[in-house]
């Protein structure tokens, strides 16, 4: 963010009734491949700004207004979110829509194996992660004013069509496994079961902030993909992540001795979630995990496309992530047959 943009943001914030105590400064976070995110500070104040990236964007992508809306609605629920301060829909201010929220102090855990942490602390954090996920799916969207946050019915059919369209729009070459996965998902859509909840869309441990000295979740972040839909999409997204290699790139748990570390197995985490929501069991869970791999592959393809077009928040990282698209598609096919 250059000096002119920063001055424009400061002027706009004051116009929204946000009193600034000193000169506003900005430091870009090296996270978030979709919407550039900045830490705003004055002498003794701290905020976070999320904006759409520059350049030509895919339709319906980078919906910072949806992020703002859903987090504002969740302010007084059991779902921890930062306090929303103001949304700017006027592109003339800095060239793109953005919003400002409070800065939440907390630990960001980017490795689900939590190296160096005590056995009991790992278990407590995973239990809290499960609690928060169930809490998201237990809120009443209508009571929160989110009844129109997503269209009714046919969630997976709509999501498959949406992400296939996004994938095709950002395609940079043929990926046979992705084509096969799209075909399998279309032929194996689950029947409607009446569940329609708030869905985060990218629920994982590195999109959460935890208390500095305990397992309490202080905030769930990155709500860009949130909508009303089927809750198993979020649950399967967690399980999908854990199938990836451990380390800074995969951020998964593949091959990790979970019981020795105090981490739940996939089955234990799903069972704990079902108990929290009063669900007996989940049939055909392989479809939901396969769909999670497909959707993430489509997202990563978009990240790669933005890097090639010069619009990525972190171009080198974006290209690296984009190279994983074929592998995600292959893992989706494996989940489909499991």
TrEMBL record:
CDD domains: ACAD10_11_N-like. Residues 27-249 form the Aminoglycoside phosphotransferase domain. It comes from Puniceibacterium sediminis. The keyword Zinc-finger does not apply. This is Predicted kinase, aminoglycoside phosphotransferase (APT) family. GO terms for molecular function: kinase activity. InterPro entries: ACAD10-like, ACAD10_11_N, Aminoglycoside_PTrfase, Kinase-like_dom_sf. Keywords: Kinase, Transferase. Gene3D superfamilies: 3.90.1200.10, Phosphorylase Kinase, domain 1 (3.30.200.20).
């Amino acid at each position: 963010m250059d000096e002119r943009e920063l001055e424009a943001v400061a002027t706009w914030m004051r116009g929204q009734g946000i009193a600034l105590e000193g000169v506003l400064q900005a430091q870009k976070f090296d996270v978030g491949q979709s919407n550039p995110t900045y830490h705003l500070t004055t002498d003794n104040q701290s905020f976070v700004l999320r904006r759409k990236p520059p350049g030509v964007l895919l339709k319906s992508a980078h919906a910072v207004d949806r992020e703002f809306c859903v987090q504002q609605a969740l302010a007084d629920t059991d779902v921890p979110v930062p306090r929303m301060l103001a949304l700017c829909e006027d592109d003339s201010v800095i060239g793109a829509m953005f919003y400002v929220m409070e800065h939440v102090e907390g630990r960001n855990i980017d490795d689900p194996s939590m190296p160096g942490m005590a056995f009991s602390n790992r278990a407590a954090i995973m239990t809290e992660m499960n609690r928060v996920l169930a809490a998201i799916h237990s809120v009443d969207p209508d009571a929160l004013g989110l009844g129109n946050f997503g269209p009714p019915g046919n969630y997976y059919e709509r999501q498959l069509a949406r992400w296939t369209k996004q994938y095709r729009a950002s395609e940079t070459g043929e990926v046979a496994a992705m084509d096969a996965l799209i075909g399998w998902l279309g032929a194996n859509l689950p029947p409607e079961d009446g569940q329609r909840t708030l869905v985060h869309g990218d629920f994982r441990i590195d999109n959460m902030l935890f208390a500095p000295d305990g397992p309490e979740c202080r905030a769930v972040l990155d709500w860009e993909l949130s909508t009303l839909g089927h809750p198993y999409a979020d649950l399967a997204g967690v399980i999908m992540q854990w199938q990836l290699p451990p380390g800074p790139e995969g951020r998964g748990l593949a091959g990790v001795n979970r019981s020795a570390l105090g981490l739940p197995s996939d089955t234990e985490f799903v069972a704990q979630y079902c108990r929290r929501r009063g669900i007996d069991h989940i049939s055909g869970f392989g479809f939901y995990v396969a769909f999670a791999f497909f959707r993430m592959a489509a997202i990563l393809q978009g990240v790669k496309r933005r890097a090639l077009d010069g619009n990525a928040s972190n171009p080198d990282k974006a290209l690296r992530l984009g190279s994983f698209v074929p592998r995600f598609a292959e893992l989706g096919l494996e989940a489909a047959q499991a």
